[in-house]
């Protein structure tokens, strides 16, 4: 009697451990048969971001949440994924949405079909699949701004170097005169 109970307990503990590793908090997960991976249902949970996901995720439901963007690389480890749904989220379609757009396009045509932008106003209700780089606002601006940053930094460094040179020359002038006088 004792041994089966202990074995059952260990099995349960093991199941809980595996389950905790596979199932993000507040999601509902179901095994899809032996070694077939898991169905991870995180839909309608008010999630603001993609939870940490296990590599054994095979079906992933993230629809009807409050996600506005996906951190770059968030889906990269999901090598066994077969199905994903990210529709009905208030996606903010600025430059940062590019990772999600490219990843979904790469994953499957149907996965990006129902993905609609909520903000910014210029992209409201537009399908993510139809946005081009130009419409993804800050994408265009970010490069010149970075270049400008480098320009100002370089200008500041050069100005500083010239100032130091002038001050050094001024300071040395007295000594130089002395040296000249001595000679
Ligand atoms: C979407 O999620 C909200 C809770 O966040 C829930 O009340 C609502 O019924 C869900 N809608 C659908 C269509 O599942
Ligand atoms: C995603 O879920 C929504 C709402 O449940 C559904 O209407 C839509 O067809 C699903 N999309 C995909 C690609 O499964």
Automatic annotation (TrEMBL):
Bilayer topology annotation: Single-pass type I membrane protein
Annotated signal peptide: 1-20
GO biological process: blood coagulation, intrinsic pathway; cell adhesion; megakaryocyte development; positive regulation of platelet activation; release of sequestered calcium ion into cytosol
Keyword Membrane: yes
GO CC annotations, alphabetized: glycoprotein Ib-IX-V complex
InterPro entries documented for this protein: Cys-rich_flank_reg_C (IPR000483), GPIb-IX-V_Complex (IPR052313), LRR_dom_sf (IPR032675), LRRNT (IPR000372)
Domain LRRCT positions: 89-140
Localization: Membrane
UniProt KW keywords: Blood coagulation, Cell adhesion, Disulfide bond, Hemostasis, Leucine-rich repeat, Membrane, Signal, Transmembrane, Transmembrane helix
SUPFAM superfamilies: L domain-like
Transmembrane segments: 150-172
Record-annotated LRRNT domain positions: 22-59
Protein name: Glycoprotein IX platelet
Source organism per UniProt: Terrapene triunguis (Three-toed box turtle)
């Amino acid at each position: 009697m004792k041994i089966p109970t202990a074995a059952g307990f260990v099995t349960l503990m093991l199941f809980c451990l595996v389950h905790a590793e596979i199932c993000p908090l507040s999601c509902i997960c179901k095994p899809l048969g032996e070694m077939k991976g898991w169905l991870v249902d995180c839909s309608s949970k008010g999630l603001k971001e993609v939870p940490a996901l296990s590599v054994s995720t095979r079906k992933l439901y993230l629809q009807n949440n409050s996600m506005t963007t996906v951190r770059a690389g968030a889906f990269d480890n999901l090598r066994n994924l077969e199905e994903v749904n990210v529709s009905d989220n208030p996606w903010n379609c600025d430059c940062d949405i590019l990772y999600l757009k490219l990843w979904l396009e790469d994953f499957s045509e149907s996965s990006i079909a129902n993905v609609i932008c909520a903000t910014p106003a210029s992209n409201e209700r537009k399908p993510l699949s139809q946005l081009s780089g130009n419409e993804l606002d800050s994408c265009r601006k970010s490069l010149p701004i970075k270049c400008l940053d480098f320009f100002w930094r370089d200008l500041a460094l050069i100005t500083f170097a010239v100032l130091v040179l002038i001050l050094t020359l001024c300071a040395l002038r007295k000594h130089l005169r002395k040296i000249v006088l001595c000679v």
